[in-house]
Design a protein that fits this description.
It is a single chain. By secondary structure, this protein is of the alpha+beta class. It folds into 2 domains: about 5-125 and about 265-285, 3-Layer(aba) Sandwich (Rossmann fold), CATH 3.40.50.10330; about 130-265, Probable inorganic polyphosphate/atp-NAD kinase, domain 2 (Tumour Suppressor Smad4, Sandwich). The chain contains 7 helices and 19 strands. The strands form 4 sheets. The protein has a 6-stranded antiparallel β-sheet. A 6-stranded antiparallel β-sheet has the order 14-13-12-9-16-17, with no helix packed on it. A hairpin with a 2-residue loop joins β10 and β11 (about 170-175).
Amino acid sequence: MQQFPTIGLISRRDNRDIVDTLAQVADFVIKHADTSLVVDRSVAALLGNHQLEVIDREELGKRCQLVIVVGGDGSMLKVANQLAEQNVPVVGVNRGRLGFLTDILPDDIEHALEQILAGQYREEPRFLLEVQTGAGKQARLLGAAMNDVVLHPGIAAQMIEFDLYVDGQFVCHQASDGLIIATPTGSTAYSLSAGGPIMHPKLDVLALVPMYPHSLSSRPIVVDSNSEISLVVGERHNTAPQISCDGMVVHTSSVGETFTIRRKAKQLKLLHPVDYDYYATCRSKLGWAQRPVRG
């Protein structure tokens, strides 16, 4: 029995540079025996010369057993929460700059997809974070993030103040440019630029990474992924710190407002080719030294 009888294909709506790769993926899936293809409207707009069945992204989980995302890591981040909610596995074809999440290269598309459609793949669950403001009946969900939730000033070169709690226990009062709460997936993104640790995707932890703290002793903290992180906004220079999820601003705060960050119940099912190697990806994308050739 075919494991993926219906496959969905999605991409960013504004990237015409990936039309050739979209067409290559679409043609491969269409030609594959016992497999049908549906696309979202972004793909249909880019592949106007193909006769394709178009569905809304909200229907992917109902119709598809697998979704292919063509683009960069940003493209994957934009759909991660939706695909996690729909409980549909996803594989990424890289047409971006890095490719930690979209790891199939254009030259390997047919070989890698042939393996995956034959059931030869590695499934790697990736958890996400959710952030809310308020508590009890006043609680309001602001957004979800696969990489990170960030408290930041919203204005360049403005320091903010906040209190940090983990599982209800006070950790510290901090004056800094903000705080990054990063998943292992996000540890090679913004968190890395701020001096945070690289965390293997299999780890169930979070990194709390201060951004330019006004203290020589303030360092990143790694906590269990099931921890409840609370941030209470302080008053400093009339700033109104903002909350971002994977780089997208979702809320502008007020003094004394409390934000709670928790692990999302549903995870994203990310599929890799069988020869996927996380450390090889780090070597390639982060410029780590290669093993010397011995004569």
